[in-house]
Design goal:
With 323 residues, the protein is an all-alpha fold. Helices cover 72% and strands 0% of the residues. The chain is globular and about 50 Å long. The protein starts with a helix and ends in a 9-residue tail after the last helix.
């Protein structure tokens, strides 16, 4: 069982990130061929890194699946989803602020379970057109909780992994319950350039807080997302909600570990890639909680994929630690 579980988790996360990036690449080719070229290059980097991670699967060691710790992890994912969606839907704080609050509180009050709580909170970002009530959201939370346990030990250190787990729950629940996905249009570049700029800045700030200030991935992302959710709608009244979504999306990329990203330069590239994917993925699977995390997950893996490809050509492997 301990050998099979990582394989299942690996397949689930790989399928979900490739689902979104595949739709996005196809859509980009049909609407903006230049974007199609960009997305194809990103997809190739992602595929290379997935292949590398597959080769590492035999090294994954689990101490057990059906443990008390994993039961609490599962319950924490479900609780995070329900708390975030309540703050989002009922208290009307909005998805970004709701998730940021859950992350900040979890990191300070329940640090041992801050990661699964934050993971579940991403599912709570789902729109009510996709999952219309708390019962349907709970279904997504349950699926995400199972996926969280299955994915322990795989793709560790990649920002956005938690969001992809939540995305798994929301997409499966959305299709199963006949929910309605949103399909907004790709924004014009007078908005697109701001999306990319905020993406790079948010990824770098989060990574700096996480790795260099050593405040932890959850706290770093939650603080950046919370600030973005509160400030950007005021600074940019017409597009502030979109930019806030981009900021928390990029903050998930900044949750990556120093083992995966040696310094801020490749993280800046990941922020750029994330911004572009955010733009071209707008018409696809909108309203699913965890979509932003999946964008970040695929983006950091694509960048890491090219770094690993270059290292392979040079005959080197491990990145240096940040200085």
């Amino acid at each position: 069982m301990n050998k099979i579980v990582p394989i299942i988790g690996f397949v689930v996360l790989s399928v979900m990130v490739l689902l979104l990036f595949g739709f996005t690449t196809y859509g980009a080719w049909t609407s903006q061929p230049v974007g199609g070229v960009v997305m194809t290059l990103i997809l190739l980097g992602l595929l290379f890194e997935i292949y590398r991670e597959f080769r590492e699967l035999p090294k994954v060691k689990l101490n057990g699946v059906f443990t008390q710790k994993n039961l609490f992890n599962f319950l924490a994912v479900l609780a995070g989803a329900l708390i975030a969606c309540t703050l989002n839907w009922n208290v009307k704080l909005g998805a970004v602020v709701a998730v940021g609050l859950v992350g900040v509180v979890a990191a300070n009050v329940l640090p041992d379970y801050s990661v699964p709580l934050y993971c579940g909170a991403f599912a709570g970002m789902a729109s009510q057109k996709l999952l219309s009530n708390h019962g349907e959201l709970a279904v997504a939370g349950i699926i995400a909780g199972v996926a969280y346990v299955l994915a322990l030990g795989v793709f560790d250190g990649f920002g956005g992994k938690l969001g992809t787990i939540a995305f798994t729950g929301c997409v499966i629940a959305g299709f199963s319950l006949a929910g309605e996905f949103a399909h907004p249009a790709i924004p014009a570049w007078n908005v697109g350039w701001l999306i990319v700029v905020y993406s790079v800045v948010a990824a770098l700030v989060t990574f700096y807080i996480n790795v260099y200030l050593k405040r932890g991935a959850v706290m770093a992302s939650a603080v950046v997302g919370l600030v973005g959710g509160l400030v950007l709608p005021v600074v940019h009244p017409e597009i502030g909600g979109t930019l806030a979504g981009m900021v928390i999306c990029a903050s998930f990329a900044g949750m990556s570990s120093a083992k995966r990203f040696p310094n801020i330069v490749p993280m800046a590239i990941a922020g750029l890639v994330g911004g572009l994917v955010f733009i071209y993925s707008m018409p696809h699977l909108g309203g699913a909680g965890g979509k932003f995390g999946t964008i970040a997950f695929g983006s950091v893996m694509a960048v890491r994929g090219y770094l690993d490809f270059i290292a392979t050509l040079r005959g080197t492997s491990q990145p240096k630690q940040p200085v």
